[in-house]
Amino acid sequence: MDIESFKRLWNDQNALMVIDSSSLLDGYRFSSTTNQYIHDILQIEHESIFLPAQVCKEFEAGKEKVKSESLSRYKNADKELTQMIKGFKTDLSSKLATYEKSDFPSIKLLKETLFNKIDGMRDDIKNYETRIRSEVQNNQEMLDKDLPAQLISLLQQKGNIGLPLSINETIAIYEEGQLRFKYKIPPGYEDMGKSKNGDFKHQQYGDLLIWKEILQRAAECQRPFIFVTSDVKEDWWELHPKSKRPIQARMELIQEFSEVSSKGITFLSLTEAVNHLAILNGVHSLQAEVEMKTENILHELITPVIVNDNLFNKDGILTDYLENTSALPDKIYMNADKAEVLKYSNIYLHGPSASVIEENVEIESAFELEVEASLSEYYGTEIVIDFDVTIRLLGSLKVSFELDFDRSDGDPLYKEETLHIEVTGYFEILFIRLNNVDEDSFYDEYRESLLELN
């Protein structure tokens, strides 16, 4: 939703915003500066915010775990990195010892050089720990202030939190939930089986309880609704068939809402909602927007680099930034004469993080992706081998750019001339199938051809 559409909905049509527990808990996951930014904006607009009772219940149940994870991400960083270096030095020492026994030339000098570099890496980690100490302290203070809980308290005082459903209403929803889950009617069926044991089986119906409270409130107040959620599963959203990113609310939910209100409901992410509200109130922060959009920015920028036409070059060879770690013969899949990507999975990002200093932004993340491809290889003038292969790509991403503070609405956040993308990694073969060929005889012939070459 663009800012003008949001403005009409928010200001002109007096929309009511409902915030899901997943988005409230996100208030603990960002940096201290961005957490304060989110809180301040929602506090300004608190009179038009409503929380279902089930949202508050789920928030209370999950907040201590999320707060602990938020604090530990800083505290454990130096320990994890130091442990990785320690393990690397141990493996390196073992390998170098083998070389020393074999009297490799200048091996002692190489060993001394490498160990000095490792010690330098340890010093860099200690220096990094010192540099982020203030952010760790700020983060602890922010968690102690408990800004999301403060917002809930304010909404409670204003009467903007729903009353819990009655026992009879809750039981009826549980019974309805069994049928909805059976036929995959949203929301909540993706949570089917959640906390199966004992008295906690009802937790799988949490999304449905929230939805029923929204419908109940919509029937009472007859205002447009904006539902803000960080839950991006298919039982809330229509997802893009390839990227699996949210497009719009599930049509079944829009239809069900229309049965109780003619005013309509719009789904937004926390990032979209906060950014639009910030612009309307004249307090927008481009730096905070970057941190909140880190995953989206990475997906938009690196998908064309990793996938699309860049996975195989014109000669059918996997791009240079990928190194093979598989035991299969390189020639089978590295030097294919013809390559066609048939399918690729969503790119999974692990531990994305953003550093924003004034206009300079650096974003880093590990990634994982699976690709199915059809390859052809020519042997002489008569033999053509066709084979299907599934490849897993793993690696790291680093994106840097300068923010464009003069950009127009809808334009990229960054100055395009400053954009720099680095991708490093490796691939491994998960599956390979030779078509119309006896695999054993093929490998025998392949090994014989290698012997002839040597």
**Main beta sheet, described?**
6 strands, mixed
Distance between the termini: 63 Å
Structure classification? alpha/beta
Number of helices: 16
CATH architecture assignment name of the largest domain? 3-Layer(aba) Sandwich
Mean pLDDT: 80
Cα Rg? 27 Å
The CATH class of the largest domain: Alpha Beta
Taking pLDDT < 50 over at least 5 consecutive residues as the criterion, the unreliable ranges are 312-335, 449-454
Shape: globular
Strand content: 15-25%
Number of domains: 2
- The proportion of residues forming helix, as a percent range, comes to 40-55%
Succession of helices and strands = HEHHEHHHHHHHEEEHEHHHEHEEEEEH
Work out the number of β strands: 12
As for the CATH topology of the largest domain, it is Rossmann fold
Describe the secondary-structure layout:
Elements: H1 3-12, E1 16-19, H2 21-26, H3 32-44, E2 49-50, H4 53-75, H5 77-101, H6 107-131, H7 133-145, H8 147-157, H9 167-182, H10 206-221, E3 225-228, E4 237-239, E5 246-249, H11 251-258, E6 265-268, H12 270-280, H13 286-292, H14 294-306, E7 322-324, H15 330-334, E8 338-344, E9 348-357, E10 360-379, E11 383-402, E12 420-435, H16 439-453
Parallel strand pairs: 1-2, 1-3, 3-6, 7-12
Antiparallel strand pairs: 4-5, 8-10, 9-10, 10-11, 11-12
Helix pairs in contact: 3-8, 4-7, 4-10, 5-6
